[in-house]
Design a protein that fits this description.
Blueprint lengths: L10 E5 L11 E7 L2 E8 L7 H4 L9 H7 L4 H15 L6 H30 L3 H21 L8 E2 L2 E2 L11 H19 L3 H7 L7 H6 L5 H4 L7 H4 L20 H28 L34 H11 L7 E8 L2 E8 L10 E5 L1 H12 L5 H11 L3 H5 L1
Antiparallel strand pairs: 1-2, 2-3, 4-5, 6-7, 7-8
């Protein structure tokens, strides 16, 4: 009589379809050998709304709110990306004051994004205090957004050819104080986490991204700079006021989750520095020498774009009627296509717009290049032969919002 034999098989387990580590709906099918990951299969599209197709029946201005919903943590960056893309369609350059306001708002948005990424990542690992401290600073930013636009999240404030309305300098009075307090709070979070034994054990040498993997999956942002590649579109292809403000870009050569945490902390400090630079320019430069510089105009008394051939409007029309037609009919463009890229907080984000051959006020095709989509494609290569407990910290460290992935 032979002894009994046990057949050992791998276990297939559903991770999701919802998990606190992913902002959105994410399902990952895990193949486990004990607690070791043998294989993962990422399932996306659970949140799909067809936003890109919906924008193809909207005017260029009506399409703007969709970008707020793609990545609700980096709304102002996506608004700025879309606005500059539309401006490129008819070669319009906004006034310098608007460039500084946009840059200031986008860097505040970067701080908000990284605070969420770092603090929620700490919460996923088990640290409660950074989450509470970080969200106190994010609440101050939400209040500032509400003060200038009337909305906390989906403001649609950065718009093609400018912003929704000018910001009085009195509304920015509290930003100097915020910069100082936020810097202290970031340092407190670093003091709590950076040398924590538990934090380092959970992140150091976990989720390492190699250079070949990053190239094959077109990774960008913190993930690319985390392996020592000095690629930041704010320096390489500067937009708005980034060619004027002074800031540094952090680099690391380890490529693990701990490096990505350190770089986000460093980036927040540099963003505060950019905010200070923008405030200094806005306070010292005589942007108000032309009181109407914020509007689309050719002169003080003429609030119209100086390209009448591209608009079905008479050049001598009253400004109010012109404004009404711009709002209802939208902007008419002739240029066939435009591609614009931004260094958003989560990585390189791009918009590709194709217009019809004739003059049109709606895009024929519009597509978004979302960094999270490419990151999820590389996730199986990052988590190979990893413990299941480390998967949560890796997902937190790559900073996902599924709205931009599913679209």
């Amino acid at each position: 009589m032979y002894g009994s034999f046990k057949k050992i098989e791998n276990m297939t387990l559903n991770f999701g379809p919802q998990h606190p580590a992913a902002h959105g709906v994410l399902r990952i099918v895990l193949v486990l050998s004990g607690e070791m990951l043998e294989k993962i299969d990422v399932h996306i599209g659970l949140l799909h709304r067809g936003s890109e197709k919906l924008m193809e029946v909207k005017t260029f201005l009506q399409s703007l709110p969709y970008f707020d919903r793609f990545d609700y943590v980096s709304t102002l960056y996506l608004e700025g990306l879309y606005s500059i893309s539309v401006e490129k369609l008819f070669d319009y350059d906004v006034p310098m004051r608007l460039k500084f306001i946009r840059t200031l708002l986008m860097e505040l948005n970067r701080i908000s994004n990284h605070l969420l990424a770092v603090c929620c990542g700490a919460l996923d690992v088990g640290a409660m205090n950074p989450f509470l401290w970080g969200f106190e600073e994010r609440e101050k930013l939400m209040e500032f957004y509400e003060k200038i636009s009337g909305a906390r999240f989906h403001s649609s404030f950065l718009r093609p050819c400018g912003i929704a309305q000018d910001i009085e300098m009195s509304a920015m009075d509290g930003l100097d104080k915020f910069v100082h307090q936020c810097l202290l709070r970031i340092c407190e979070i670093e003091t709590l986490l950076s040398e924590s034994r538990i934090w380092k054990q959970r992140l150091v040498d976990v989720g390492i991204i190699s250079y070949p993997l990053s190239c094959s999956h077109a990774l960008s942002g913190v993930l690319m700079r985390g392996i020592g590649v000095p690629w930041d579109l704010r320096l390489v292809e500067p937009f708005d006021a980034y060619s004027i403000v002074d800031f540094n870009v952090p680099l690391s050569s380890f490529g693990d989750s701990y490096s990505r945490y350190l770089m986000r902390a460093f980036e927040m400090k540099e963003s505060l520095r950019i905010v200070q630079n923008c405030l200094g320019w806005l306070n010292t430069q005589n942007f108000y020498s032309d009181k109407n510089s914020i509007y689309l105009k050719t002169s003080i008394d003429d609030f119209k774009l100086s390209v009448p051939d591209r608009f079905s409007m008479e050049t001598d029309m009253e400004s109010l009627i012109h404004h009404f037609k711009m709002g209802t009919e939208g902007i008419l463009v002739e240029k066939e296509e435009v591609y614009c890229s931004f260094e958003a907080p989560k990585g390189e984000t791009s918009v590709y717009i194709v217009t019809e051959e004739d003059v049109s006020n709606i895009p024929w095709r519009i597509r978004l290049r979302a960094p999270g989509f490419f990151t999820l494609g590389a996730l199986s290569g990052v988590t190979e032969k990893m413990l299941i407990a480390d998967l949560v910290s890796v997902i937190s460290s790559i900073d996902l919002v599924l709205g931009e992935v599913d679209r």
